[in-house]
Design goal:
Distance between the termini: 71 Å
Largest sheet: none
Order of helices and strands: HHHHHHHHHHHHHHHHHHHHHH
Oligomer: single chain
Strand content: under 5%
Number of domains: 3
Shape: rod-shaped
Low-confidence stretches: 1-8, 207-215
Helix content: 55-70%
Radius of gyration: 31 Å
Length: 375
């Protein structure tokens, strides 16, 4: 039966093994390691040859010649079937030997990686692990514990690294002054909305300091401009929050920092974002989201009025908000894309039409919000 496997003779006698490890020159041992480990790494060995090669590898782990162990590490770093004890031994070796397997070996488990990271102070090992093709939240958390700018920068730039919500929060809190890290974290494909909102807040605060120093503007003027920018960016995050879990975390964080303002809540509604509006009122009213949704969508006004009052939103704004909610519900079934200028124009037109029949107070504020969210 034909085969593409290149035969490699590993019929080594005990004397051959003794000479390989003790009698041969370093150059010979490196050459033989290259030959055997290279064939092993390319899956060119039979089952019996593979077992022999693995036994040789275990002996080579004790070789005093660094070049031998480096050659072994380089050849087997991408092997998925190398025994774990061999890889772990290489990962514990000196940097020249350990770094290739730390970065590339898929044989190392999360537990292995975390144990290796916690038992070394060498930054190069942290950096090697940070470059791995895939990283779990647990391993990323262990790397974050090192609190090293280089490690964090590599981690957030690694698209295959999974970072927990709390991990993102730690990065933003600990490295807010590092522009490169903040830029990288903002581009990370798995950045949760809650972490992004905190990032926006920090960046906006930093912008205020820069503007004040550069242009000598009044604090009040700067705060207005920065708040406008912050709110605009936050609304963009709100619009892109996909799951209810993301929305829950985002709202919980905003509420915890007193950033869940009436302006933000009503602006989200102006964008046609029912999920954020309903969840915000539920949070402020301290009731389940399902209950708040049922009350808000109730055909009569009593349910909405009850949850609105309990949420603490301005009482004087209720008639205008009720009309806004009605109009947004109408447009929900129409061929309109929320957040666009056309959508905003449709909201304003319908609000004004209804207001002609029955005047409503504070509509100018609602119309201003509608216009602002599409600027």
């Amino acid at each position: 039966m034909p085969t593409d496997r290149m035969p490699v003779s590993l019929a080594l006698t005990p004397e051959d093994v003794r000479r390989l490890l003790h009698d041969a020159t370093a150059a010979t041992r490196v050459e033989m390691t290259d030959r055997i480990a290279g064939a092993y790494g390319n899956s060119q060995l039979s089952d019996q040859e593979t077992l022999v090669a693995e036994q040789i590898f275990r002996l080579l782990l004790r070789d005093t010649e660094l070049r031998v162990r480096v050659a072994l590490s380089q050849h087997i770093k991408n092997s998925s079937h190398i025994p774990r004890d061999i890889v772990v031994s290489l990962a514990r070796d000196v940097e020249e030997v350990s770094l290739p397997v730390l970065q590339f070996s898929e044989v190392l488990t999360d537990a292995d990686l975390m144990e290796l990271l916690r038992n070394t102070q060498e930054i190069s090992r942290y950096l090697a692990v940070s470059k791995r093709l895939q990283l779990s939240e647990a391993v990323s958390e262990t790397l974050l514990e090192k609190n090293n700018d280089q490690v964090v920068a590599l981690l957030v730039d690694n698209k295959g690294a999974r970072i927990s919500d709390s991990g993102y929060q730690k990065i933003v809190a600990a490295h807010a002054g590092n522009k490169a890290i903040m830029q990288a974290i903002g581009l990370h494909p798995r950045l949760p909305a809650a972490a992004a909102e905190k990032l926006v807040h920090i960046v906006s605060s930093s912008l205020a300091v820069t503007l004040k120093a550069k242009y000598n503007l009044t604090t009040e003027h700067i705060e207005k401009e920065v708040e406008k920018t912050r709110e605009s960016e936050t609304l963009s995050l709100i619009r892109h929050a996909q799951s209810q879990a993301d929305i829950d975390k985002l709202i919980a964080q905003m509420a915890g920092f007193d950033r869940l303002t009436p302006s933000i809540i009503l602006s989200a509604l102006c964008q046609g974002n029912f999920a954020f509006f309903e969840t915000s009122l539920a949070r402020l009213s301290n009731i389940p989201v399902a209950n708040a949704r049922a009350l808000i969508t109730d055909k009569g006004d009593l349910g909405f009025r009850a949850v609105y009052n309990k949420s603490g939103l301005p009482d004087a704004m209720f008639p205008a908000v009720r009309l806004l909610l009605h109009v947004v519900h109408e447009l929900d079934g129409a061929d309109e894309k929320p957040g666009t200028p056309r959508y905003a124009n449709s909201i304003v037109e319908r609000i004004l039409q209804y207001a002609e029949e029955a005047p409503v107070e504070n509509l100018s504020y609602i119309i201003a919000l509608v216009r602002r969210v599409v600027q």
